[in-house]
Amino acid sequence: MRLAVVGATGAVGTVMLERLRARSFPADEIVAFASARSAGRELDGGLVVQELAEEAVRGFDLAIFSAGAHTSREWAPRFAQAGAAVVDNSSAWRMHDDVPLVVSEVNPDDLGWHDGIVANPNCSTMQMVVALKPLHDAAGIERLVVSTYQSVSGTGMKAIEELRRQARAVLDGEPLGEPQVYAHPIAFNVLPHAGSFADGDDHTDEERKLMAETRKILGDDAIRVSATCVRVPVVFGHSEAVNVQTRRPLEAAEARDLLAAAPGVTVLDDPGSGVYPIATAAAGHDDVFVGRIRRDPSHDSALDLWVVSDNIRKGAATNAVQLAELLVQRDLLHGRAGTKAA
């Protein structure tokens, strides 16, 4: 089996390669692809980066992408047409009707109808639906009100560097300079602006992703979603305050038991003792951590949850690797049509 990792030198691509090694993915050969400026660079593990080129995409069984939507739109179909099943981490294919949007613990059976490309959800959606799945199965979800507290690593390495640079400047009493990545300084600050505003839209694309992707993954277009996505000065780990209105009343104790039994979920819920999920503790782990599980006193059929996960691990790299594993285990590399065309 030959596996391509496209975007191998980026923050997510680097973790993808590490997760492939750590999980002993059954590839006979892994080929790392990145931009021309990274070609020839040797990575940890001895892989030498190749530049994407038409003749280089042939002969792969699988390709995992984390190279941005523009690259994915151009190159994912080429890999698929050349015979590879593609797992794409960008926003390029998520809402295409003929492309499954899959979280390994939530809707793995949707892999069965791919025709060459499988999409990985947005990181904030990913962790939330892992926590919502057992509640939706048990009681149905009527409405969600979500506030995210998203780390800067979701924007990339330049954002991490900007946060660190600004934090040092604040602590040293030096001028911050003009922010380059965000609209305002992020150090010691909270920005009600994660993602980008399209012309004429009062919601960011991150908020729109939460709304649309949640419905698609859970397979329920009737779920109503209100989202506010916030950027916070944290390096790794997204946190979310989620208010869940269910279709039948669900007690907090029942929800806690359902979550404790759910795959990929760790419940940390003893707030009086200071036990609840926090971003720094979630960083470097693959689980979704849930705590502060309690009834919403303003609504008889609503609960409040606090959901935290490493946005680079489960929110991106790990789920992509898990989907690749499932494609192999279920003999789904050829897709629904019995061909490998996109």
What labels describe this entry?
342 residues; alpha/beta; Rossmann fold; 2 domains; six-stranded parallel β-sheet; six-stranded mixed β-sheet; disordered C terminus
Query: How big a fraction of the residues is strand?
Result: 15-25%
Q: Which CATH architecture of the largest domain?
A: 2-Layer Sandwich
Number of domains: 2
The neighbouring-strand order within the major sheet is 3-2-1-4-5-6
Number of strands: 12
Largest sheet: 6 strands, parallel
CATH topology call of the largest domain: Dihydrodipicolinate Reductase, domain 2
* Number of helical stretches of at least 4 residues: 8
Radius of gyration: 20 Å
Mean pLDDT: 95
Question: Looking at the structure, what is the overall shape?
Answer: globular
Query: Helical residue percent?
Result: 25-40%
Separation, N- and C-terminal Cα atoms: 20 Å
CATH homologous superfamily title of the largest domain: Dihydrodipicolinate Reductase, domain 2
Descriptive overview:
This protein is α/β, with parallel strands linked by helices. It contains eight helices and twelve strands. 46% of the residues are buried. The model is unreliable at 337-342 (pLDDT under 50).
Summarize the structure.
The protein is of the alpha/beta class and about 350 residues long.
Helices and strands, with pairings:
Blueprint: E1 2-6, H1 11-22, E2 29-34, E3 50-51, E4 62-65, H2 69-81, E5 85-88, E6 117-119, H3 123-139, E7 141-150, H4 157-171, H5 205-218, E8 224-231, E9 238-246, H6 252-261, E10 265-267, H7 279-282, E11 288-295, E12 302-309, H8 313-329
Parallel strand pairs: 1-2, 1-4, 2-3, 4-5, 5-6, 7-8, 10-11
Antiparallel strand pairs: 7-9, 9-12, 11-12
Helix pairs in contact: 1-8, 3-5
